[in-house]
From TrEMBL:
PROSITE patterns: CYTOCHROME_B5_1, CYTOCHROME_B5_2. GO terms for molecular function: heme binding; metal ion binding. Its main location: endoplasmic reticulum. It holds the Pfam family Cyt-b5. This is Cytochrome b5. Keywords: Electron transport, Endoplasmic reticulum, Heme, Iron, Membrane, Metal-binding, Microsome, Transmembrane, Transport. Transmembrane segments: none annotated. Belongs to the cytochrome b5 family. SMART domains: Cyt-b5 (SM01117).
Length: 138
């Protein structure tokens, strides 16, 4: 594994980082993400991530919890991710994380090539929510 041997011993417990500090680690030289208020340094894992480096880099410096859970990672992936933990988000900053919002773009009704109409958009939102719910049950 490419994670930190230090993380495997849980020596990260009690080590808190402020959100401002985590947000600085948003590039390929230093890539940190937040999952369930824990801070992960995934820099060394970028090249090995099965979903591609870009997936992690898009989340760098921020909360990746929603996207991580939406993908439905395996038990092995969850276990391996623990080797990348470097600390926890400071309790005072946990309320600062942006909650995901649904943004449905209907397109331009005057342009039939990109307009899907309210019925299709509603269906997309419902199916997405159903898939997310089922992934969390697994």
């Amino acid at each position: 594994m490419v994670g930190s041997s230090e993380a495997g011993t849980e020596s990260w417990r009690g080590r808190y980082y402020r959100l401002e500090e985590v947000q600085k680690h948003n590039n390929s030289q230093s890539t940190w993400i937040i999952l369930h208020n824990r801070i992960y340094d995934v820099t060394k894992f970028l090249d090995e991530h099965p979903g591609g480096e870009e997936v992690l880099r898009e989340q760098a410096g921020g909360d990746a919890t929603e996207n991580f859970e939406d993908v439905g990672h395996s038990t092995d992936a969850r276990t391996m991710s623990e080797t990348f933990i470097v600390g926890e988000l400071h309790p005072d900053d946990r309320g600062k994380l942006q909650k995901p919002t649904f943004m449905v773009q209907l397109g331009d009704p005057g342009n039939s090539s990109n307009y899907c109409g309210p019925d299709v958009s509603f269906l997309h939102v419902r199916v997405s929510a159903l898939l997310r719910t089922n992934a969390r049950r697994d």
